[in-house]
Amino acid sequence: VITGYLSIVVLGASGDLAKKKTFPAIFNLYTQGFLPDELKIIGYSRSKMTTEELHTTIRGYLKADRQDPTKKSEDVIHQFLSKVTYMQGAYDTDEGYIRMNEEVSRFELEKDDKDSSTHRLYYFALPPSVYPEVSEKVRKHCMNPRGWTRVIVEKPFGKDLESSEALSSELGALFTEEQLYRIDHYLGKEMVQNLLIMRFANRFFQPIWNRDNIAHVQIVFKEDFGTEGRGGYFDEYGIIRDIIQNHLVQVLCLVAMEKPVSLSPEHIRDEKVKVLQCVEPINEEQVVIGQYEGYTDDPTVAKSSNTPTFASLALRINNERWDGVPFIVKAGKALDAKKVEIRVQFRDTPGDIFNCKKLGRNEFVMRLQPKEAMYMKLTVKEPGLDMKAIQSELDMSYNQRYEEVVIPEAYERLILDTIRGDQQHFVRRDELRVAWEIFTPLLHRIDAGKIPLLPYKQGSRGPREADELNAQTGYVRSEGY
Ligand code: BG6
To answer: Domain of life, per the record (predicted)?
Structure first.
């Protein structure tokens, strides 16, 4: 818990992200006592609205008792909202930022407690197009003269290598790397954070986590709804920029990287960069992209849009551990399920005397959501008189194992990390650059319409070709998959 004066300014306060994620995450930290008593929260945006109207907008998303989300304690919500004020202002002129700074400074100085430390956190819940101007103004008018200033920025960080590098340079000229927190909320998910411990603290995994034992890896993101309401944003970016280049690549890093020298944020991110540098250029023959039928009925999407809402592709990591193992990264909207999982399939058992091949291979699955779980598919004797092999599961479902534990929201963890000054779960500039280097050539080809966009039905598994890609790259499908 930090002490002193903390000001959190949410820029883009009237938007969806702020309402659904940022304010509720700050609220959760507040109710658990992670924020200092001297707390000021300002919502800033262009929209004309009063503080009361902002309160009304966000209060529906605040859940005071997370064990029972229907039960809200009005008192605690009321207390929290009393710390939240709204300011309307433009993004591109000085005036609003001068007012913002005055308000924050007044709060910091109101108790004439000049020895106490002050902290300022600016959360950019903004459209990327205004990042440069907002950053410039915050730098010019709103820096903390007596303590730290930190800025949380949200993806998209550009649209390709060049635009991302341009944005990085602009931000880099205004803030130091220590002040910038590039958020990828997947890094705040329980199972994603578990990867590091699971892989490197278990004797089980260390000797088998390599090309000699692993045949195939899949990192899969599925949503069972389309782009409703977000078509305008999504259509400009598409599924690779929205999900794969950031969220799934971060997961891939943690699945594939070498053991870091220590748990310091720099050592961890060094290893992520290294493994990304080993990713080979993407082979177009092993790319499937698709668009769900009806996507262009969205009025915010152009009728002629060739934006993929589905993509599956094989990445190859050219190093000693992974040479020859396909890493399929797959993401899609409007599919048959809502889930995110990592599926590691092992090679066949040599000298098969039980006819295991028929049953399916060993698999280790981490389900990120819904219902966090890790399970292993393994072959066991069917209980009974016969000596019969069957496939079963060693299952660690979190809702059974940790019944009483409320798993924190990703944003909640990451905002707390920012307040604590821990950058371990944030994306470093070089990491971002390498991730763009991998995808930019493919994205340019897709944007130019050079890769066939396959239609698929809403509620389906996506284009059939994606299952074929799995099979071609050596995935052996077992029952129920
Ligand atoms: C966001 C994407 O970053 O992640 C959305 O922009 C997507 O398109 C969302 O729906 C998924 O997040 P989660 O935490 O629900 O898996």
So the answer is: Eukaryota
DSSP class of 460: B
List the one residue out of 137, 135, 147, 123 whose CA is nearest residue 175: 135
Calpha distance 144→128 (Å, rounded): 24
Residue 341 in contact with ligand 1 by CB distance below 6 A:
no
Q: Is the pTM of this model over 0.90?
A: yes
- Give me the count of residues in the chain: 481
Answer whether the bond into residue 370 is a cis peptide, omega within 30°: yes
What's the farthest any 2 CA atoms get from each other in the chain?
Answer: 82
Ligand 1 atom closest to the Cα of residue 230 is 8
Q: What is the CA(110)–ligand 1 centre distance, in A?
A: 40
Q: Look up 247 and say whether it is catalytic.
A: yes
What was the ipTM of the complex prediction? 0.94
Atom of ligand 1 nearest to the CA of 233: 6
Residue 356: count of CB within 10 angstroms of its CB: 16
Ligand 1 centroid to residue 189 C-alpha, Å? 12
Atom of ligand 1 nearest to the CA of 247: 3
Give the model confidence (pLDDT) of 308-318 as tens digits.
Answer: 999 999 999 99
Q: Is 165 in the pocket of ligand 1 (CB under 6 A)?
A: no
**Do 287 and 451 form a contact (C-beta atoms < 8 A)?**
yes
Specify whether the CB–CB gap between 187 and 250 falls below 8 A: yes
Pair 292, 269: CB distance under 8 Å: no
Pair 308, 331: CB distance under 8 Å: no
